[in-house]
């Protein structure tokens, strides 16, 4: 398998310099966990490594551990488990969404088709479970298994609600808490547990990760209503009939006629660029973008407040910078 290294994008992440040596240790464990005796799987794993993203979740694991105590070999395994589970969910997401690209590269399903892609996602999940079980990291496995459960429930709730286009704001926060925030929350909690096994610290950092994940997802949803090049087409959520916070707010606070027109567009004209632009303009006019931005800032502040329980340190500052990074990023 080709040499695995942290991408230049990862080096730009806040906090990288604090755990640079530890991230290299994580890389070794992660690379070894991907190995298979099946040639096709090895090729797929090599491609996954080559097209990896920003490595934010392992960074959160390592910084959380360092904040709560000391990084050790179980911390590296926790970071590898998080990344294996995250990668498995991305592969399965691309299958479900019939996505042909991810981060500017062809997706796994686009190259290896559906059956092999599903099986490769299963393989990643199994390797993560075995990594923990073989080393008796039972509490870490419990934390991350709960995240997988929540992610599945969030996806299914979104699927159910999207069919009827009746997502409330409460539904939305349940969905993003489960789909996105749960894995980051469990990553931070797992990092804390490997450092000192103090459940109080585990819960503090779990809350920190949960709030950060919610803010992250709201930011991601706001990109759909912007004009910057963010790696996905503007209006893509509307094309996929996904009701996110800016649109939910707009539907709730608009006239019956406007609501009827928006719902009609989403159901029947969601491929027409002019119709999509009209919906985006309506969301902006109704204050949906401003409202979502305010909610994002609220959860960003909640995440920063969760760190107040810890003494000042470079790790604490790095985690705070990561919260700001996730909400101020351009893509």
Would you kindly provide a brief summary of this structure?
With 331 residues, the chain is mostly helical. The protein has helices at residues 8-11, 20-34, 39-50, 56-68, 73-97, 108-134, 138-164, 169-196, 199-223, 236-239, 245-252, 256-268, 273-286, 288-306, 314-328, and strands spanning 101-102, 105-106. The protein contains 15 helices and two strands.
The CATH class assignment is: Mainly Alpha
Assembly classification: single chain
Structural class: mainly alpha
Order of helices and strands: HHHHHEEHHHHHHHHHH
Total number of strands? 2
Total number of helical segments?
15
Based on CA inertia axes, which overall geometry fits?
globular
Please bin the fraction of helical residues.
Answer: over 70%
Quote the beta fraction.
under 5%
Features:
disordered N terminus; 75% helix; 15 helices; single chain; Farnesyl Diphosphate Synthase; two-stranded antiparallel ribbon; 331 residues
What are the SSEs and their pairings?
Layout: H1 8-11, H2 20-34, H3 39-50, H4 56-68, H5 73-97, E1 101-102, E2 105-106, H6 108-134, H7 138-164, H8 169-196, H9 199-223, H10 236-239, H11 245-252, H12 256-268, H13 273-286, H14 288-306, H15 314-328
Antiparallel strand pairs: 1-2
Task: Describe this entry's structure for a reader.
This protein is mainly alpha-helical. The chain is built from 15 helices and two strands. A two-stranded antiparallel sheet has the order 1-2. Helix 5 packs antiparallel against helix 8 and helix 11 packs across helix 14. The N terminus is likely disordered.
């Amino acid at each position: 398998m080709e040499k695995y290294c942290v991408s230049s994008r990862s080096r730009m992440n806040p906090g990288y310099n604090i755990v640079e040596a530890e991230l290299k240790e994580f890389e070794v464990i992660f690379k070894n966990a991907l190995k298979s005796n099946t040639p096709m799987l090895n090729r797929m794993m090599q491609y996954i490594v080559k097209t990896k993203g920003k490595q934010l979740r392992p960074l959160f694991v390592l910084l959380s551990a360092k904040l709560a105590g000391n990084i050790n070999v179980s911390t590296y395994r926790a970071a590898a488990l998080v990344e294996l589970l995250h990668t498995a969910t991305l592969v399965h997401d691309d299958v479900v969404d019939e996505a042909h690209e991810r981060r500017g590269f062809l997706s796994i399903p686009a190259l290896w088709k559906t059956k092999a892609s599903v099986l490769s996602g299963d393989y990643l999940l199994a390797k993560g479970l075995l990594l923990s079980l073989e080393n008796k990291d039972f509490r870490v496995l419990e934390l991350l298994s709960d995240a997988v459960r929540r992610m599945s429930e969030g996806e299914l709730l979104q699927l159910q609600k999207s069919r009827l286009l009746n997502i409330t704001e409460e539904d939305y926060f349940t969905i993003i808490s489960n789909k996105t925030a749960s894995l980051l929350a469990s990553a931070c909690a797992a990092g804390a547990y490997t450092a000192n096994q103090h459940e109080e610290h585990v819960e503090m950092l779990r809350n920190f990760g949960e709030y950060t994940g919610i803010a992250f997802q709201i930011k991601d949803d706001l990109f759909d209503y912007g004009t910057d090049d963010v790696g996905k087409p503007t209006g893509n959520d509307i094309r996929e009939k996904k009701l996110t916070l800016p649109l939910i707010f707009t539907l709730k606070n608009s006239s019956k006629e406007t609501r009827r027109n928006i719902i009609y567009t989403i159901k029947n004209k969601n491929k027409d660029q002019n119709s999509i632009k009209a919906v985006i303009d309506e969301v902006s006019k109704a204050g949906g973008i401003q409202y979502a931005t305010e909610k994002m800032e609220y959860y960003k502040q909640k995440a920063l407040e969760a760190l107040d329980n810890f003494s000042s340190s470079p790790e604490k500052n790095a985690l705070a910078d990561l919260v700001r990074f996730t909400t101020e990023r351009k893509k």
